[in-house]
């Protein structure tokens, strides 16, 4: 398994729905220069909540023992697994990236299970081939 320091994207875009009063309150804080923009406020709020629950997250990470950060699987990694007759049980907290040149057949032959908390980047075909292995 190759560990890469550079994902294909450095963040994942999410969409949230907020009530008008909450949105107006955020806009007020932005207007008063407490935050540069809405995104700055939301990122700050998320980081504060993550810090507040860090002990719980630490315990869960210790129990589940996931790869933390970015896990990139290249075709050669999976070919080596196939040739050795072994399969991967992937647990990732961060980003799991499977190279574009990995075929659905190779992915199915070498990956027994996938659990990702964060982002999962792979071709549509590989994601579809692994759908029944996602936990």
TrEMBL record:
Pfam families: RHH_8. One of its GO terms (biological process) is regulation of DNA-templated transcription. The lineage of its organism: Bacteria, Pseudomonadati, Pseudomonadota, Alphaproteobacteria, Sphingomonadales. It comes from the Bacteria. It comes from Aurantiacibacter arachoides. This is CopG family transcriptional regulator. InterPro entries: Arc_rbn_hlx_hlx, RHH_8, Ribbon_hlx_hlx.
């Amino acid at each position: 398994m190759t560990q890469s320091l550079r994902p294909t994207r450095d963040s994942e875009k999410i969409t949230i729905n907020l009530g008008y009063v909450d949105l107006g309150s955020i806009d007020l804080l932005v207007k008063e220069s407490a935050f540069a923009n809405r995104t700055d406020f939301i990122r700050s709020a998320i980081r504060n909540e993550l810090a507040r629950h860090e002990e719980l997250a630490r315990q869960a990470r210790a129990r589940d023992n996931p790869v933390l950060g970015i896990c990139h699987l290249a075709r050669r990694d999976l070919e080596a697994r196939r040739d050795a007759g072994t399969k991967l049980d992937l647990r990732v907290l961060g980003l799991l990236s499977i190279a574009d040149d990995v075929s659905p057949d190779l992915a199915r032959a070498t990956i027994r299970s996938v659990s990702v908390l964060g982002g999962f980047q792979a071709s549509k075909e590989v994601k579809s081939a692994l759908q029944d292995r996602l936990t």
